[in-house]
C-alpha cells in the first residue's frame, strides 16, 4: 500500500527531528562532557542516518534534507508538487529536534550549529563539495540497477559519517540546510547561515548533473521498453 502524503510528511518530520536530536545532540553532549570526541560525533551522524533510512525510508524516502529533496526533484525522481511540503516538514522536524537539544544544553550553547572554521569562502566550497558527493552517492545507490536493500542505507550513512569526520573541522559538514538552520534559529546565531543553505542546494544540483553524465546513454537503435 502506497503511503499517503500525510504519512510521508510525518516520516520526514520525525526523521529530521531525530537527526537533530542525536546528531547535534552528540555535539552538545561532547561540549559538556568531552566524552564523545570529533570521531564520535561523526559516528553519531552516520548511525542516526542509517537508522532513519532503514526505519522510515519505505514511507517517505527518508530525505530529511531539503537539498536531497530538491536533488531528487531535479533528477526527475520526485514530484515537484511535493517539494515544498517535504521542505516544510523537514524544517518543522529540525526545529523540534533543536528545541529538544536546547532543553539539555548549557546556557550560551550553539546547539551544534555549523560555523566556518576559517573563511566563508572555504566553508562554501567545502559544503558544496561534500553535498555534491553525498547527492551523487545517493542517486547512484538508489537507482533500480544498484539498489540492494540494507546496503543502500549502509553506503549513505557511511558517506555521511566519513564526510562529517573529514569536513567537520572545516565547515561543520552540514550538507543539509535544515541541519544548520534549525540550531541557528533556536540559539539565535545566524552567522553565515546563507552558506549552509546555498552551498548544499548547489552541491546537490551538481551531483544530479554528474549522475546524468555517468548514466550510460541509450544506444541509437534501442527501442523504448514502456
Automatic annotation (TrEMBL):
Q: Which Pfam family name is an example for this entry?
A: MIP
Tell me the PROSITE patterns matching this sequence: MIP
According to its UniProt record, where is this protein located?
Membrane
| Source organism superkingdom | Bacteria
Q: Does the keyword Membrane apply?
A: yes
List membrane-spanning regions: 9-29, 35-53, 83-105, 117-138, 150-170, 190-210
Which keywords accompany this UniProt record?
A: Membrane, Transmembrane, Transmembrane helix, Transport
Q: Does the keyword Oxidoreductase apply?
A: no
Q: How does it sit in the membrane?
A: Multi-pass membrane protein
InterPro entries, per the entry: Aquaporin-like, Aquaporin_transptr, MIP, MIP_CS
Which protein family is it in?
Belongs to the MIP/aquaporin (TC 1.A.8) family.
Q: What's the protein here called?
A: Aquaporin
Organism from which the protein derives: Hymenobacter ginsengisoli
